[in-house]
Predict the 3D structure of the following.
Amino acid sequence: MIDVSFIVPVYNTERYVARCITTILGQTHADIELILVDDGSKDRSGEILDSFAAKDPRVRVIHKENGGVSSARNAGLEAARGEFVSFIDSDDWIAPNTCELALKAARDHSVDLVQYNFCKVVDGRIHESKKRFNKEGLYPLPSSLRKFYNTGWNSVCLKLIRRSFLMENGLKFFGWSYHSEDQAFSFMMFSYLKEFYCISDVCYFIVSRRESAIHSIDTAGYQNRVRTLKVLQEELVKRGRHPEFIRMARKFERLNALKARFAILRSGHRI
């Protein structure tokens, strides 16, 4: 079995995707596969993906009609063959030893999820972020959830996840969601974990782009975010998850809906 499947959803990121792919293929741990999901790109992204697949047998490309980031990630997850999976956004990149460090931590501590730290990249410059998890070690759940609420834990891209854990618990993205989809997926994952391990190293580099989904919420985006977080709560209840996760999901919904509403009003849109 392949050790790690990297899953990268791609939509119109021809300026950035080659760098992302290069950092994945250049990992110090080489027993990986890279699944690139072209989500109906209208630029040259698809051609770039195919060119990498032609040169490296570890690369597989899925071309599909545009369905959004969640459907693209689900498609990649269905195709994955690795013991672990890792989701990466196509405009971001990772440190060369990310896979090596995370895989070692997962196996040494027998956990289903490993979390690592990140930096932001603004206008081409790396900004050292205050480490969200500044202590390396095991974190029990649900007790750690409130302590680390609304930090890097809610991004699906800062994690190495055991694939069998996702499959056994029926965990996948809401296929229709494109705002707060990371948070909803991560929330559901954590509700099934007894503990996770954190690596203190900065492994992930987030590129800040104005045209990215996180910076472009409109009325439809606001409604999608509200629906995503509402359905998350319903799923937590339906699945009988710990009450602490349900309480935190409700708080999370109120906070994010409020932030999104203010963003809409500032932009001049009507809700």
